[in-house]
Amino acid sequence: MELYPLLEKSTVQEIKIFQEQKLQELIAYLGNHSPFYQKLFTENNIEISDIQTLEDLQKIPTTSKNDIQQNNDDFFCIPQNQIVDYSTTSGTLGDPVTFGLSDSDLERLAYNEAISFVCAGIQKGDVVQMITTIDKRFMAGLAYFLGLRKMGASVVRMGPGIPELQWDSIFRYKPKYLITVPSFLLKMIDYAEKYGVDYQNSSVYGAICIGESIKNQDFSDNILSRKIKEKWNIQLFSTYASTEMSTAFTECEFQIGGHQHPELIITEILDENENPVKEGESGELTITTLGVEALPLLRFKTGDLVKAHYEPCQCGRNTMRLGPVVGRKQQMIKYKGTTLYPPAMNDILNDFDGILCYQIVIQSNEIGLDEIIIKLSTNREEENFESEVRDHFRAKLRVSPKIEMIDFDVLSKVVFNPNSRKPINFLDLR
């Protein structure tokens, strides 16, 4: 497979024709191999020959995470003895779902990451330090490794955490890029400043940022991103992916959204009534996977609210680009008449110096209304710090949450749970 796919620079019409051909192949494959979709087609009187164009997708009901949780085995299209790797979703919303990958699925995953990394500027021969786990049934870590290997980069598999070891590795192997959760870069900078590590003169040129947003909706740097760059002059690239998609949307050097790989995925952005949103509006990202053998998905609703961008990009790719996630549909909070999503609250907390870690907890009070509790640990001594945080919330979001100060040793164990791949900054107890 070519690492600089010509398809991405084809015309919008050529991309559509290609995708329609792949869609027809997928529908036929599901009709032959997927117990779940066979049943769906039968129950809804869907003739495979009726699905010819991208617009015809509207004739097919959507699939939800709930469908997979309840019928996980029926989504598999291959026998168990052809599954090479088992992965699970991170379980942000309820029970994790099992995904199996065949040999060709792993090859597709490697190709996806390779062309995504090429998009962000990584080249053959570059050294890349992975500050992410590759185990614990985590698909992404394996995908990064396979993709970097496929494109001929050198990989330093460090895993998450332990700033001291990360710096040791940076000065030893001189990576040009890091792959990391962006908030961890702040921990690395803190460590470097505390112990006199000359981080400004390291080999690191850029970081591929996963799991947290580093951009505002207009693609300007958000607070987290600005805090990193104020201290450390490196490039930060956004990427967005999920286990269900086995596909990533990664920014190119112009950093105006993650490029779609049309040979791997069909995307729809749908409103509350499952109709396509108007251009420029945000809606729920709904995906159809192309070229997946073990567990392909058709019109799967990701739960992520996003905005698509179609204007041409200077890099020459004519593919749709995804902006930063506005929020997760199921994490929407109705608080005293205001609609909120956790990313907006993260931005406010990231704005403060001296917050060591935090967790936003949402619960229903006795009269059934949403209640927001912010648990904080800080090294700030001032007595008015708590009210300062509350005032900031009031000014920015017009809400005044309850704030609890908690000892770092206690809170950090909850936020950085060893069994979780990402910091647990948001807990929904409703």
Beta-strand proportion: 15-25%
The secondary-structure class comes to: alpha/beta
Helix percentage range: 25-40%
Distance between the termini: 46 Å
Number of helices: 11
Topology:
Layout: H1 12-33, H2 35-43, H3 65-70, E1 85-88, E2 98-101, H4 103-120, E3 127-130, H5 139-151, E4 154-157, H6 163-173, E5 177-180, H7 182-194, E6 206-209, H8 223-231, E7 235-242, E8 247-251, E9 258-259, E10 265-270, E11 282-289, E12 300-309, E13 321-322, E14 327-328, E15 333-335, E16 338-340, H9 342-350, E17 355-364, E18 370-378, H10 385-397, E19 402-405, H11 408-415, E20 426-428
Quick synopsis:
The chain is of the alpha/beta class.
What does this structure look like?
- With 430 residues, the chain is α/β, with parallel strands linked by helices.
- It contains 11 helices and 20 strands.
- The strands form 4 sheets. Strands 3, 4, 5, 6, 7, 8, 9, 10, 11, 12, 13 and 14 form a 12-stranded mixed β-sheet that branches. A 4-stranded mixed β-sheet has the order 19-18-17-20, sandwiched between helices. It has a two-stranded antiparallel ribbon with strand order 1-2.
- Strand 7 and strand 8 form a beta hairpin.
- Helix 4 (103-120) packs across helix 5 (139-151) and helix 7 packs parallel to helix 8 (223-231).
- The longest helix is centred in the first third of the chain and has 22 residues, at 12-33.
- It is globular, with a radius of gyration of 22 Å.
- It starts with 11 loop residues before the first helix and ends with a strand.
- The mean pLDDT is 92.
Keywords:
single chain, globular, 430 residues, 30% helix, 20 strands, 11 helices, four-stranded mixed sheet, alpha/beta
